[in-house]
């Protein structure tokens, strides 16, 4: 079966899982939770634990394996969001040279806590459905998890997934001498990718420091960028169900 992409707004509806705001999800995720201790200084001082919430399933109508990562849920996720320090994540070889992946600490610890379970879930479904494409979805905090998952499955299994995220953050950080190599490496991780960021959505500028980047960031808008609009995430961070956002995007 040839791969059939849904309208982008539908992937947000599936990930947001909010029928009252967005309509009826085509594949509502059944999130599972993994609890882990956070190494962040404040979280460690307070003895806090964090949860990573994910869902993996098979969509027979389109022969697709879907992996979902949930948005920020609760106070402890906010602590993870603000662990801005870019920690060492992994060292790989790219174009015949070493490339050190560095990732936002809070999101890196979150994905590292779940990666073995996510890999095992994906492998089981891939063995059962070897022709299936893999879609990885996430909104807000979940977008960072989705990008880390895409890189992980590509590096360890050679999978080039289809990634669709919304209100997308920037989880990777390049050293000054590795900006271009990291960009080239990330561009080859996915078969297709749209990490959608409304220009007026303040969350999509996080972390707000030089060097942070995402896999194929796609800017969209229904209104021109204005500073005061960045102060209204209650609108611009949740309206990715609006088809008008994607009207001018090319395949």
Calculate the mean pLDDT score and round it.
90
Query: Major sheet: size, sense and barrel closure?
Result: 7 strands, mixed
Strand content: 25-35%
Going across the biggest sheet, name each strand in turn: 1-2-3-6-7-9-11
Helix % is: 25-40%
Q: What characteristic shape results from the CA principal axes?
A: globular
> What is the gyration radius calculated from CA atoms?
17 Å
Give an overview in words.
There is one protein chain. This protein has 251 residues and is of the alpha/beta class. The chain has helices at 8-16, 19-22, 41-46, 75-81, 105-128, 141-157, 179-187, 227-230, 233-236, and strands spanning 32-37, 49-59, 64-69, 86-94, 97-104, 133-139, 162-166, 172-173, 192-198, 212-213, 217-220. Strand 6 (133-139), helix 6 (141-157) and strand 7 (162-166) form a beta-alpha-beta unit. Helix 5 crosses helix 6 (141-157). The mean pLDDT is 90.
A few lines on this structure:
The protein is of the alpha/beta class and 251 residues long.
Features:
seven-stranded mixed sheet, alpha/beta, four-stranded antiparallel sheet, 251 residues
């Amino acid at each position: 079966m040839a791969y059939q992409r849904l309208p982008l707004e539908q992937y947000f509806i599936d990930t947001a899982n909010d029928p009252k705001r967005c309509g009826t999800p085509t594949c509502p995720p059944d999130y599972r939770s993994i609890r882990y201790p956070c190494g962040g200084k404040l979280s460690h001082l307070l003895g806090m634990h964090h949860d990573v919430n994910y869902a993996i399933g098979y969509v027979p109508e389109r022969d697709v394996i879907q992996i979902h990562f949930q948005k920020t849920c609760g106070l402890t996720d906010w602590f993870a969001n603000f662990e801005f320090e870019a920690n060492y994540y992994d060292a790989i070889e790219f174009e015949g040279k070493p490339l050190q992946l560095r990732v936002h600490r809070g999101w890196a610890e979150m994905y590292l806590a779940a990666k073995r379970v996510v890999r095992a879930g994906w492998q089981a479904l891939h063995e059962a459905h070897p022709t299936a494409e893999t879609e990885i979805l996430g909104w807000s905090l979940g977008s960072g998890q989705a990008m880390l998952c895409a890189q992980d499955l590509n590096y360890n299994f050679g999978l080039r997934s289809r990634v669709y995220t919304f209100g997308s953050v920037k989880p990777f950080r390049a050293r000054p001498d590795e900006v271009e190599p990291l960009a080239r490496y990330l561009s080859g991780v996915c078969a297709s990718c749209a990490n959608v960021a409304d220009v007026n959505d303040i969350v999509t500028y996080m972390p707000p420091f030089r060097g942070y980047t995402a896999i194929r960031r796609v800017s969209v808008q229904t209104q021109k960028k204005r500073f005061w609009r960045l102060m209204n995430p209650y609108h611009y961070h949740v309206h990715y169900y609006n088809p008008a956002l994607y009207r001018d995007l090319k395949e």
